[in-house]
Design goal:
Blueprint: H1 2-6, H2 15-22, H3 26-38, E1 42-45, E2 51-54, H4 63-71
Antiparallel strand pairs: 1-2
């Protein structure tokens, strides 16, 4: 998210660019980006100059929101998750 946000307003970065910049495998990055897209944190742009860019202004994101999109609920034990059934 930081790499894509730092790229500049309106500029898209491809998975290949982010992978090279952050030294992360493209396959792993594809998985992370899919979660960020589902969480409406990134926008996918098609075409020759396409790629990914933030869905909104940088100051509108929280670290917790990004972590929950990628990792799921942030609870120490599963019984504290929303909708968990009591034993």
């Amino acid at each position: 998210m930081v790499c894509i946000a730092v790229a500049g307003k309106g500029e898209c970065l491809s998975i290949k660019q982010v992978s090279k910049s952050e030294d992360i495998s493209e396959k792993y990055l594809e998985q992370i980006i899919s979660y960020l897209l589902k969480g409406n944190l990134l926008i996918s742009v098609r075409g020759a100059h396409g790629g990914y860019k933030p869905a909104r202004a940088d100051d509108e994101y929280t670290v917790g929101e990004i972590l929950r999109a990628v990792e799921g609920e942030l609870v120490p034990v599963s019984c504290l998750e929303k909708g968990a059934k009591a034993l």
